[in-house]
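Box 3.1 A note on notation
Throughout this textbook, protein chains are presented in two layers. The first layer is the amino acid sequence; the second is a token string describing backbone geometry. Keep the layers aligned when reading.
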Amino acid sequence: MDAAIKWPPHHVQSAEYWENPFIPSGYTYLLQFIAHDLVHSAIPLSVAGGLGRGTANARRIPLRLETLYGSGPVGSPHIYALDAPNDDRRTKLRLGRMRWKENEPATGCPFRDIARAQAENVTGIDRSIAGVRVALTEALVADPRNDDHAVMSQLTALFALLHNALIDLIRRQEHGSGRNSQFGAAYKRFLCAREAVTLTYHNILRNDLMQRVIHPAIYAAYSGPFPHFMDRPDNADQGLAIGDWEIPFEFSHGAFRFGHAMVRHEYCINDLSIQDLNSTLEKTSANDPVNMPLDETWMVQWSRFFEITETTPNFSRRIGPFLSDGLGNDQIFPAFDETERVGLLYRDLLGAGFAGMWSVDALIGEIRSRQPHLIAASRLLADRAYRVDQLRQWLAAGHAYSALTVEDIETLSNDPPLPFFVLFEAMQQMAGLKLGTLGSIIVAEVIFGVLANDPRSSSGDALAAQLARLSRERYSVDFFQEIPPISSMAQLVSFTSEIAELQQACPAFL
């Protein structure tokens, strides 16, 4: 999987042959954000070496933005800011000032980074530069993974800016009925804004992200009002309660790792800077605390990551069994076992092995028994001999990059690891522009299945009707009339720039 893929042309002149002109790179990191919102374990399975208490999923309810909101202002107060200097209520997510790398202009330092703080030194190791700069080692976020790299922390700040602007929107319309001296009024405001952000997020997942990344036939089968799920405890005769269902390993440690293949080797962050992947990965409070908060060269200009203006965004990589070199960084992804292997790819494959997932053959057989037409539409899935031969040819063709023996090739062709096969299928069936059939089914089952079990998101109503109902339930009037029908990340960013008054921001927000 070190061998660069010889992609067929995609006939989009503005994109390189290895780029996916249909998926701007912002979606790579939205996928990572979603992964954090679905699964949170104390210890990665690859490092733990097997299933155990530390590898259990701590997410109580998936896709409810726990990765952003934590346990709320009472349970996670460190991620919330005081509403006002003389006020002890917390309804807004805490943000931090960015840093000017050169001379600070008269406009000051806008709140465009996640909040970061210095911890009292109790270890004898001080990473500050004496007399120059304090090391901000602590990222004040609900999920520490949301500071995995600079783009991830900026995406987290984007959602925080939207939430905070909605708090202000509600507050302006409350009049005297929502005085902050009343704890209940403040918490009602918080819950209303959080639910509005969540509904908007769900609308984007359903109508934007999933349409871009999964096979069109699978999207059509699952995005309608009455999808037929194969892995949902929604029938009484199954003898299961909804709470018994968990995110399957075939998703979390198998298919959904496809986003790692979409990561570029470098990014145009804004008009000021182009950053390679190694620099991007190292820009965190854990790895580079002395250079925190992020400076102007790291403030994401969102038109570089989503289709917002005439600016051509960074496109994601096409999906296939190849990862950018930066994901093999031995400082970010060091060796942790006797093999001395480094890199994210090794962790993905090892974790998949420890998870004890269904084999590719078994998954295909089970899906064929339930939805035979989905398997029949893909020769790679329907014809095992063809599938084995295609895998064998590809594995043999990459012999110069690996030490695979003939026996290895036969073993992997007949029983491919699921994360590898999902990438191979996307390359072979969809030229890397979307997931193939099997990968799409696994992803659709989980994402659309979770949305179908959410009472508000499963109503089938347009976003405007959902938001109006939400507001009237809490305030008897519609406070969200001015929110446009947001169904894409581009629309979310544009609305956030307007409601948070960032159209003329410096550094540029759009």
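Strands lie at 19-24, 80-82, 90-93, 95-97, 111-114, 116-117, 138-139, 266-270, 273-276, 315-317. The first strand starts at residue 19 and ends at 24.
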